[in-house]
Design brief:
Number of strands of chain B: 9
Radius of gyration of chain B: 26 Å
Structural class of chain A: mainly beta
Radius of gyration of chain A: 13 Å
Helix content of chain A: under 10%
Largest sheet of chain A: 8 strands, mixed
Strand content of chain B: 15-25%
Structural class of chain B: alpha+beta
Helix content of chain B: 25-40%
Oligomer: heterodimer
Shape of chain B: elongated
Order of helices and strands of chain A: EEEEEHEEE
Strand order of the largest sheet of chain B: 6-9-7-8
Chain lengths: 96, 193
């Protein structure tokens, strides 16, 4: 199932979702989670892009992709209290 | 009795109004390398660049979690991550859209990788050497038939799940000066994901 900009991924108590993006970014959300894709653009020729998402509750795992390799400021994850800038890495986030 | 009710009410209000508890943890990659996540929370800025470095709401110091703690708290989520994309490199016999013998063998590995994934998606990327002025234009013109050739080789695979891209001379396999004819740089990369 395609996931696009402005989509929201919501899981129930026993649900998890994994998503592969066109720049090879990998995301997964755990049970009882809500993640919104605020902005996703990626140019497959230049690798320029912007990837912003918001985790309002639950858990998120991220492996960043090609756009972060190209420009370290391309990816941000927001939570109710923080904003994360991603400089090419794997990380996990929990909002209780 | 009244005092108890008030105490419960205050406790409940405090519970409901408490700021969300948040944790961010940086993990080492499969090669052990760690990237960086910068966490900005109000005026506080924490840089996480060590394995299992963790930023938590209400804690000024960067904490360090254990692998076990991460697994307990995030195991299910980490399990849900899609498999990492795999990359394959194909080379052509110079001046043709015919794959080299080695690359014909490699193409079989691509097809095998497709079978390993529940919902595979293919990205075919054309790369060129530094010959030509408007590299990007020429690159896409030159590599387009090759890309379509590779796409048709995976004919059993639904076309709408194959994407193509042209990178021109942005990712040279063998770094060269401009205007250098280098066959190793003229290649097609395939990402199966």
């Amino acid at each position: 199932m395609p996931v696009q900009e402005a989509d929201k991924v919501v899981t129930g108590a026993d649900g998890t979702v994994g998503v592969t993006f066109t720049d090879n970014s990998l995301l997964s959300v755990g049970p009882n989670s809500a993640l919104k894709i605020d902005r996703y653009v990626f140019d497959s020729t230049t690798h320029a892009g912007q990837f912003d998402s918001t985790l309002s509750k639950g858990t998120l795992a991220v492996i960043s992709g090609k756009m972060v390799k190209q420009s370290p400021d391309a990816m941000h994850v927001r939570t109710p209290s923080a904003i994360m800038g991603v400089r090419g890495t794997e990380f996990i986030v929990r909002v209780d | 009795m009244g005092v108890l009710a008030v105490a419960i009410a205050v406790g409940l209000a405090f519970f409901l109004m408490r700021p969300p508890h948040e944790t961010v943890v940086v993990l080492p990659g499969p090669d052990g390398k760690v990237g960086t996540v910068v966490v900005q929370r109000g005026d506080t800025r924490q840089v996480l660049d060590q394995p299992y470095a963790a930023s938590k709401t209400g804690e000024a110091q960067v904490a360090r979690l254990s692998d076990t703690e991460v697994r307990e708290s995030f195991g299910e989520t980490l399990q849900a991550l899609p498999a990492r994309p795999s990359a394959f490199m194909l080379h052509f016999i110079t001046g043709t859209d015919e794959l080299t013998p080695e690359s014909k063998a490699e193409l079989q590995n691509v097809l095998a990788a497709l079978k390993d994934r529940p919902l595979p998606d293919v990205l075919v990327i054309g790369h060129t050497d530094t010959v030509g002025d408007l590299a990007a234009t020429i690159a896409s013109r030159r590599s387009a038939p090759r890309r379509s050739k590779v796409s048709s080789s995976t004919s059993a695979f639904p076309a709408q799940r194959i994407r193509t891209a042209g990178r021109g001379e942005r990712e040279l396999l063998v770094p060269t000066a401009d205007e250098v004819d280098e066959p190793r740089n003229r290649r097609v990369e395939i990402n199966v994901r």
